[in-house]
Structures are given as structure tokens and as C-alpha cells.
Amino acid sequence: MELIERVYRLNPALASSLKRIIWKYAEEIRRREGKDFKIKLMNFCGTHEWTTVHFGLRSLMPENVELVAGPGCPVCITPAYYVDQAIKLAFDGITVYTFGDAYRLPTVRPVKGARSLMEAKGLGAEVKLVYSFLDAVEEAKRDCRTSVFFGIGFETTAPSYAMVFTGKGVPSNLLFLSILRLTPPAAKYAVQAVEARGLSPIQGIIAPGHVSTITGAKPWDEVSRETGIPAVISGFEPIDLLMSVALLLKMIKNGEVGVRIEYLRAVSWEGNLEAQSAIRKVFYMADAPWRGIGFIPKSGLKLRQGYGKYDAFRQLGLKELSPEEWKYDLPPECRCAEVTLGMCKPPDCPLFMKSCTPDKPWGPCMVSIEGTCAVWARFGGGGLADVVGKELGLV
Ligand code: SF4
């Protein structure tokens, strides 16, 4: 750990060299494409955005390189419909287990007076916070009443659910509300949506390192080839991100598509085959809604028939959302959909740090530490750039 910190975090000499390389490639691209050509790179991970902002990496970029955040926060993209359903269940006396970051996730209109599971708990509903699915399993075994797990997450979280199911460790009184989402289809969607909006297009993808430890690099290669732009799978330290930006610029300069792995210390081409197999055994892929965005093809995971006795939808007669019934589900004036699709920045929202703050989130991107608005609220868009950059002699 210490070595990783020294090499990837506290390494001003390497940061400085990488900055020079980034500027060199950016200048070569500018000379070829003209001064108005914007090299927009999208990260797909709340932790990447956190590192970018916290370490002030935007301040190290040349003028023609823009780093934008993507839809990589599982809390931000969880549709309001599922929050509503969970609140109703909790008021009906069914214990709802949730992770801490989804606990404060606001819906659009209050359900029985509550805008979130946290408010529901305050009003006497049955909501319990857990750190893991296993915690919920243990607690449900002790408390034999019907309960529901609010199952959010991406590919990184999915195996932790799947392996408990395949290990036959889940008691029959614990049901699962699957709101799991898959990241490559959303990355592809975001790239295409930016272009369809007529904005300057995304030129490269900074793909999520932790998701890729499970999926491997292969799906990102497919996204790259389908969108025609390069992708680099990146680690989470500032040096990782600077290296990924440098690699992406080199690929753009050379007209390369495909995927490169910067996060070689954790990611392989094939990924974690055991985890992938557990996910496939328990879940199947389905079209699924993303908050403020709508349905994205094959971007969700639902429980297979064989695990139907745990499926909260089937067992409690809950209706799944359909594309026809999905409604725009952000609170009035909240611009989270555009924020998560890299179309605008948090300060472009009229409510940012006015009626929407980390203490009192109005929209979903202000809740989790991985939410873009929450990250910008804590550190400012440029982050600690001035402080860290000056200290390193970089700005
Ligand atoms: Fe939504 Fe709040 Fe972000 Fe505005 S500042 S986009 S209301 S989360």
C-alpha cells in the first residue's frame, strides 16, 4: 500500500513528466485539428471524478483537453420508482435493508410524507442500514419477518450478491429488489447522447478500474469499437488518471480505437471469470431504466427464474417499470441527467449549493460521495488544484 501511495499518489516528479506528455500530445492534436477542436474525455466512475476534483487534475490540463464526468455513480442513476416502492414497503411493515448512500436518496414526490428511506425511518417505517448484503442476510436469519434488500450497484457489487445466492446462504424471508446496472451499455449511451444533443463529442473514455476487475477489458473494447473512440481502463490514484489521459491522447493522436489497460495491477483482458459465472448463474441481462435518462438496452440485471422465490417483484406483486410507463424522474429543476451524461457541470444547475447541498440533497447526484454534484460541492470543480498544484510546482 505504501509503495502504491508513493508511486501513484505522492509522486510530483512523475506527475510533472506526465503533464508535459499530455501537453505535448494535446498540442500535436491541436496543430492537426485546429484550435477549436476540443478533446473531451469522459470518466465513467464516481471515484475517478473524486480523484480528478480532489487532486485538481483539471487544472493540469491544456485548454483543449476537457475532462467530463459520466454516469458512474450507482446511487445517482437509481430510478425514483424503486425508492417509492421501497418506502411503501417499509411503511407496510416490511423491513427494507439498504446501504448508507441509498438511504438518503430523494425521490420526486413524498410517499406517505417521506422523500427518502431516511425520512421514512424517521416517520416510523421499517428501514435498516447495512454495510453489506451479508449483514442483511445475517439479520434476516435472526428476525424471521419478511424483509427486502434494496439491491443497487454495478458489476463490482453484483458478485457479492450472486455468490451469496449461489452459496445458498439467503434465508427465504429475505427478498431482493434488483436495481443492478451494467456500465458498458451506459457508457455507449452517454457517448451517443452527447453527440445527438449536438454538443462537442466525447473523444475518449476513461473506463472504470474496479468494474473492469470483474468484467475484464473485453466489454470496453466493444464499446470503443462501437463508438469509434478509444478507451483506457484506469486506476484511481492521480498518477493513474494522468497516465490514462496521456494514453488516450496518444491513441487519439494516432487514430487508434480499442482499449488499453492502465490499471494493469488489477485488471486483465478476461476479468474475474468466477465472479462473472456467479453473476450469470443468478441474474440475466435486461433493458433497464436509469434515473432521468430512461431505458438503456441490456443495461440491467434481474434475478433468474431459479431464484424467483427471492425476487421482491414476483413475491410481493410489485410491478416492474416498463419503457411505456417510465416517466422523467428528477425533481423540478434538477439537472442530474445532464450532469451524469457529461452535458453540463454541477454549477450549471440553478439549485447547486443553494437549495441542494450535501446536507440537504434535492437531487440524486448530491447524495453519494461518488455523485458528481456532491464531489464538486465538497471540493469545488477545480478541487484542491491551487493548493496541490502549487505545492507540486505544476500550476
Ligand atoms: Fe440535481 Fe442538486 Fe445536482 Fe442540481 S445540484 S443537478 S438539483 S443534484
How would you state the average pLDDT, rounded?
A: 94
Helix content: 40-55%
**Strand line-up in the sheet with most strands:** 4-3-5-6-11-10
Sketch the major β-sheet. 6 strands, mixed
Note the run of SSEs as H and E.
Answer: HHEHEHEHHEHEHEHEHHEHEHEEHHHH
Output the number of helix runs.
17
Basic shape: globular
User: Into which percentage range does the β-strand content fall?
Assistant: 15-25%
Bound molecules: iron/sulfur cluster
Structural class: alpha/beta
Radius of gyration (CA) equals 21 Å
CA distance, first residue to last residue: 28 Å
Number of strands: 11
Low-confidence stretches: 383-395
Quick overview of this protein structure:
This protein is α/β, with parallel strands linked by helices and 395 residues long. The chain has 17 helices and eleven strands.
